[in-house]
Write a structure and sequence with these properties.
Helix content is 49%, strand content 15%. The chain contains 15 helices and ten strands.
Length: 356
C-alpha cells in the first residue's frame, strides 16, 4: 500500500487548487488506475485541504512521479515547479496509520473535523462504484470508517465547533464583531454552505441570503434556516447591502473579481465588507483584498481562529491515538487470516454488508 498526496500542512492553497480533483476528474483518475496492470486497488480523496491517492500496487515502479503524471494528464496541465516540498508519500504500516488519522480528523485543519468522515465514505463509495476496490481495500476502508465513528462517538475530539464552516464563521466574527445584528450572504448550498447556514441560524443572524446554481435547493434550505433565496442576477445589489459574504461554491473560476467588488464598494460608500472564501478552488480573486474596506479570508487564513480552539480537543488526542493503535492490530489480524485462507469469501461479504 502506498499513499501519494499533499495537504494544508505541506502546500498552500494556490498549490492545492492546482491538484484539486472535481468529481469527474476523480472518476477519470480511478478509470486510469483501474486499467493499469501494476495497480490492483485504489481510491482517491480530494477535499479543500487534501488530495490523496491510495494505491495497492503490484510493483515499486508505481511511485510518486507516476501518480503526479496521471493527475497532470487528467487535469491537462504541467506542474512546472518543484513538487518535492509539497508532496508526501506513505507506505505500508505508515500509510495505514495515516489513513486512520485522516479519518479521525487528526490531520484536519480543524482538529476532530466531522466532515472528513463523510468525505472518506464518499471517496470509498466512488471507488467501489468504479470497481477499484477489492478484498484488502474493502477491509481497510471499512475499518477506517469504523475507527472514525468510534473516535467521534466515544471521545471529545469533535467537541464544539469542528468544521471549516464553523471556523469561517469564527473568522467572520473576529472581523465584523457580533453577527446577530448583521446581514449575511451565503453563496453555495453544498455541504459547507449548509453547515454555515445552520451555524448562522443558531447565532440568530438578522438576515441571511442564500444563492445557489440550483434555485430549488436554495429555496429549500432558505426555508429550513429562515433565510431568503436569491438569484445570482441580484448579486451586485445584495453584496451592496450585506455585511458579510461566505463563498462555498467550488466553481472552476473566480465568480467575484476585483473589478466587480470595486464597483460594489463604490455603492457601499466605504462601508466595510467581509468576504470569507471557503471554496476549492478559490472563487474570490485574492486581489480583492487590496481594496479599501474589504476584508478577505480564504481557507488557509482560518488557522488564526482554529489555533485558539485547539486546546479544547487536545485532551482527546491520546484517547483517539489509542483507538487507532487498536484498529491497526485489528486490521493486521484480518489480513493475516486472509493470507492464511485466501479462497474464503468471508471478507468480501463482510465488507459489502457493512455501511460504506
Amino acid at each position: 500500500m502506498i499513499i501519494v498526496g499533499l495537504s494544508h500542512k505541506t502546500a498552500p492553497i494556490e498549490i492545492r487548487e492546482k491538484f484539486y480533483l472535481n468529481p469527474l476528474q476523480q472518476d477519470l483518475l480511478l478509470s486510469e488506475l483501474k486499467n493499469h496492470p501494476l495497480i490492483s486497488e485504489a481510491f482517491v480523496l480530494s477535499t479543500c485541504n487534501r488530495i490523496e491517492v491510495y494505491l495497492k500496487r503490484v510493483d515499486l515502479s508505481v511511485d510518486s512521479p507516476f501518480v503526479i503524471s496521471l493527475i497532470a494528464k487528467i487535469k491537462k496541465i504541467n506542474f512546472d515547479f518543484d513538487l518535492n516540498s509539497y508532496i508526501y508519500v506513505y507506505e505500508g504500516p505508515q500509510a495505514l496509520d495515516h489513513l486512520l488519522r485522516v479519518t479521525c480528523g487528526l490531520e484536519s485543519l480543524v482538529l476532530g473535523e466531522k466532515q472528513i468522515l463523510g468525505q472518506v465514505k464518499h471517496a470509498v463509495e466512488r471507488a467501489r462504484t468504479s470497481g477499484t476496490l477489492s478484498r484488502h481495500f474493502n477491509i481497510l476502508t471499512n475499518l477506517a470508517i469504523r475507527t472514525g465513528k468510534k473516535a467521534q462517538h466515544e471521545t471529545t475530539i469533535s467537541h464544539g465547533g469542528s468544521s471549516i464552516s464553523w471556523a469561517a464563521i469564527e473568522m467572520a466574527q473576529k472581523a465584523a464583531g457580533n453577527l446577530q445584528d448583521k446581514s449575511v450572504l451565503v453563496i453555495g448550498a453544498g455541504k459547507m454552505g449548509e453547515i454555515a447556514l445552520n451555524h448562522l441560524h443558531d447565532l440568530g443572524v438578522k438576515k441571511i441570503f442564500l444563492m445557489n446554481r440550483t434555485g430549488e435547493k436554495a429555496e429549500l434550505l432558505a426555508t429550513r434556516y429562515n433565510g431568503i433565496a436569491a438569484s445570482f442576477w441580484n448579486i451586485k445589489e445584495i453584496l451592496s447591502e450585506v455585511d458579510i459574504c461566505f463563498c462555498a461554491v467550488g466553481a472552476p473560476h473566480y465568480i467575484l473579481d476585483k473589478e466587480k467588488i470595486s464597483n460594489i464598494m463604490e455603492i457601499r460608500q466605504g462601508r466595510k465588507l467581509v468576504l470569507i472564501d471557503i471554496s476549492m478552488p478559490r472563487n474570490i480573486d485574492p486581489e480583492v483584498k487590496t481594496l479599501n474596506n474589504v476584508h478577505l479570508s480564504a481557507i488557509d487564513d482560518l488557522h488564526e481562529v482554529v489555533d485558539n480552539s485547539m486546546k479544547k480537543r487536545e485532551s482527546a488526542l491520546e484517547e483517539v491515538e489509542g483507538i487507532i493503535r487498536q484498529k491497526i492490530l485489528e486490521f493486521n489480524d484480518k489480513i493475516l487470516k486472509l493470507q492464511r485462507n485466501p479462497d474464503s469469501d468471508f471478507f468480501e461479504q463482510r465488507c459489502h454488508c457493512e455501511e460504506p
